Amino acid sequence: MLRPHQVSQLPQKLPSLLSAAPKSSSTRSTPCVEPNIGIHQITRIINDHPFPDRALQPTLRQCIPPSVLSNSFVENVLGRLFAAHSNGLKALEFFSFCLRQPQFCPSADAFEKTLHILVRMRYFDKAWDLMDEIRCRYPSLLTHKSMSIMLSKIAKFQSFEDTLEAFQKMENDIFVSRKFDTDEFNVLLRAFCTQRQMKEARSVFLKMHSRFPPNTRTMNILLLGFKESGDVTSVELFYHEMVRRGFTPNSITYNIRIDAYCKKGCFGDGLRLLEEMEQMNILPSLETITTLIHGAGLVRNPIKARQLFDEIPLRNLLPDTGAYNALMSSLVRSKDVQSAVALMDAMEEKHIEHDNMTYHIIFLGLLRSNGIDGCCELYHKMVERNFVPQTRTVVMLIKTFCQNSQLDLGLNLWNYLVERGYCPHGHVLDLLVTGLCSYGRVQEAFDCAKQVLERGRHISEAVFRMLERFLLKTGEMDKLSDIDRMIKKLQYILPPSKGHAVGVSGSTGTD
């Protein structure tokens, strides 16, 4: 249920019980790739491809030799497209291209990544079509994870009834060779718990538990859902209900309860549960200790955090990136940034990888202690190591650069992401365009917005109105018309959601 490599996200994201993810122009010739094509190259080609001006399939046929289509290659490209916030239709086109190659047999991971990209962008009809195609051609790829991906996003974006109907559709039309039992029931419960919809989860449990006999995993999923809702009382009430129903708590159960107390600042209660675990001969896992280290940081107790970290090898466990991140976070919260940076260096010496959480924690600490200067030094090191940060860290850096009048660094980070095949998140564009326009650098703001549209992603209404105001002021109507045309053409393929730009209104264009 909880895997070691996911512990680094434990304080910030739901554990795996709740989870199952340069300018272009239509006239530019498509860059063809050598037979030793790399993941970085094809990701950038897909993201840079003018969309929807030109079909993607011919470009893929021209640039990707069938011989390179290994499962590892396809999975990595799709993983990059997911992390890069690529347009879901482009990812689907790439996966469909791979399916058409006679020598290629897709993996479950490749299918799941494509499905996740689609439902994240609310392309539910295309996601159902994809599941149906896989049912016909590769039914073994239909896993609990793919079911979880679909149901979780339907629970997030659609109604309670829609989610139940989707579950029924999967049972009757998609997973036709499988008899639904407790494991599938757990996936449905997880979909509601992932979205912290505990009333709905409780309702489904009471309605369907007679058909699907619950097990300990079922109860842990619900317990974790209550924990993520931030209500320790509900966690304890459900825990006692779990015991009354005859289920035996395991290490996962205790990890959830410990995390619930730690996040509420009740670190002493977390330590009490650790003692209770040991008395019941339930061995604490690395996740347990990592959660407690993070809890010690939340109450500003770096001494206890260090003590717990040092005990890890004494418990016959090996510290991983998550454990180091938890200790770093504790040190940063106690304003001992120097020790946190030293810990980052120690990780490197022991060949323990830095992940996005590592960088985010240290960036945050440096900003609070040394301001922009310390942040810039680490930023340059990160770029030298070719590490691509996740959206939350990118937003923090862009905001910092813009607020400190370091717009060139902001543009440097933007170009760094784009050159690696990423299409930066909409919030990143909002911050950068605001900063550039406020300093009169409208051309660069226009270029960034155009890059996003060229890659098949919407821009926000706020970005469009800001560009509209400045372009009208400077009389650059051709650029405003260019942006307006791209927005409206994209709407035929990718309808905008609330807050997205819809183009120039009739009155604005004549003012």
TrEMBL record:
PPR repeats lie at residues 181-211, 215-249, 250-284, 320-354, 355-389. InterPro entries: PPR-containing_protein, PPR_rpt, TPR-like_helical_dom_sf. It comes from the Eukaryota. Belongs to the PPR family. P subfamily. It comes from Morella rubra (Chinese bayberry). Keywords: Repeat. It holds the Pfam family PPR. This is Pentacotripeptide-repeat region of PRORP domain-containing protein.
